[in-house]
């Protein structure tokens, strides 16, 4: 990457970031008091005279935890005319020396520098620098920039906001799946790596490297399955044909992942590790969310029964956090799976170890339950509406499993105990996720925990 080390994060910029960052959707330390740590900066060659482009790597230190985020910024003498609300970080200095600070993805000066620095794999179509771009709006844990060249296919560049040393699973998996010709993922078009100081600073410390961004083909006119499913359940329209295709696409991606990364048979030690990890998640969720206390006896019984899990299928790379919001119905391409980063609340090292493909099936079944329960879980809902949402969910879940089994050769419902344990595992993760991020949604996974334990 043709960038050079950039300026330090000084107190004045630190104060601006302290105010601006917590309001961003991607900010990982919501609700926690943090001290900012300067873990490095890259100064980018800027195509616009007088505009400085700098990516700061900032540690968010809350004492017991340190999240590392990348914050690309531009510095201009005058405000960026095209800046949308939220893109303006603030002003440094005053009078003639004032520097207007903008969130990089919203500034063409940063996007041009970023596109020029992307690395491209063999045979991949590079993303031209200088093409018009816009930031994807909507709920996102990262920041994506859609690039639409006038004379070439569009691309979408995702800036990973939370950084981890080493390969980002999204880049690693998309590279492998593109290589084996998987038809159910967007083709990889480029990536970017960077270097910063590790979380633990000190004398003689060695910098770490990792992925900063990934670029893939943009699929215009796509609809995400969460929105389609939510309107289908509201209108009580059939979603079974789509769910069957989605099940088949999921099984095909699992087959492609097995081809690209191989599989590992489960011996007794691996089985014991799997049971231990399911128990560890149970303990983690119970200690994080007190609403689970009412199920103490049933959760204890479930934890004990996990020893009975046997005949586990081979382990392989999986998606790790598959839900309806992670799949697009793309014109001419069918179902496409996105975002192979795994569960954001899980440590990165755990997200890349070979796992059960059924975990993704369980994730999708939970997502169908979310769509059905979105409007009907809670007090005072008409029982007829609950019954019809439940019937929609049951038919959709069956269709997804039918489609999955038709490609995988084994129907997921044949492994009922394992599938139930994985759905419960996911529902417990969701209880923690919702308690931290969307407390008003908490009742959806809590209701599922009660049902799955019952
Ligand atoms: N290749 C693509 N083509 C069209 N839209 C996309 C593409 N990739 C992502 N998106 C849109 O961007 C959203 C967020 O992408 P995702 O990779 O899940 O980001 P995040 O990791 O921030 O959640 C998706 O839900 C989808 O709407
Ligand atoms: O998309 P991310 O990788 O950031 O995943 C996280 O956020 C998801 C919500 O955006 C969350 O998914 C949960 O809510 C979905 C509805 O919004 C539902 O379809 C999923 O089944 C449910 O798990 C995901 O768990 C979390 O990791």
UniProtKB/TrEMBL annotation:
Keywords per UniProt: ATP-binding, Carbohydrate metabolism, Glycogen biosynthesis, Glycogen metabolism, Kinase, Nucleotide-binding, Transferase
Organism: Aquipuribacter hungaricus
InterPro entries from the UniProt entry: Kinase-like_dom_sf, Mak_N_cap
Catalytic activity, EC: 2.7.1.175
Residue ranges occupied by any Maltokinase N-terminal cap domain in the UniProt entry: 20-107
Organismal lineage: Bacteria, Bacillati, Actinomycetota, Actinomycetes, Micrococcales
UniProt similarity note: Belongs to the aminoglycoside phosphotransferase family.
Pfam families in alphabetical order: Mak_N_cap
Catalysis performed (reactions): D-maltose + ATP = alpha-maltose 1-phosphate + ADP + H(+)
Keyword RNA-binding attached: no
Record carries keyword Plastid: no
Protein name, UniProt field: Maltokinase
Listed pathway(s): Glycan biosynthesis; glycogen biosynthesis
UniProt-listed Gene3D superfamilies: 3.90.1200.10
Subunit structure: Monomer.
